[in-house]
């Protein structure tokens, strides 16, 4: 497992000027009402990842998640005897990591920075605890994360068919 808190990361705990304004209309934060958005962003820590830096590995403990502010992240799957297969590229505003929300809280894919990445990092245990205390927040996050999960599974399926099926995936309706 890659420790995202090692000295290679440059972090600034919470309180970044304007960070809520920049992301409030995108991704997970755009799906939350203002109160939940502000509560979640109060927990954020700004971090960065260098080009080609591994962020997490498949099977590792999903103890954090990120909202990408700038840069790109490749989600990949390791296939024995082959190079990792990139199944999706994430861009600014997108959620990096959904496994933190779903037991057993283990990563289902790996992630690697495709460029210099700046992101807001969240401690998954703290957010899950907040969800336990506030079922409405949990429901809003569950709705959003389940949509992300469905899109990522579809993207992974199509990409793997393109890579390994005899005639590729073609268009999936």
TrEMBL record:
This is Regulator protein. Residues 28-97 form the Cyclic nucleotide-binding domain. One of its GO terms (cellular component) is cytosol. GO terms for molecular function: DNA-binding transcription factor activity. It comes from the Bacteria. Pfam families: cNMP_binding. It comes from Streptomyces albus (strain ATCC 21838 / DSM 41398 / FERM P-419 / JCM 4703 / NBRC 107858). SUPFAM superfamilies: cAMP-binding domain-like.
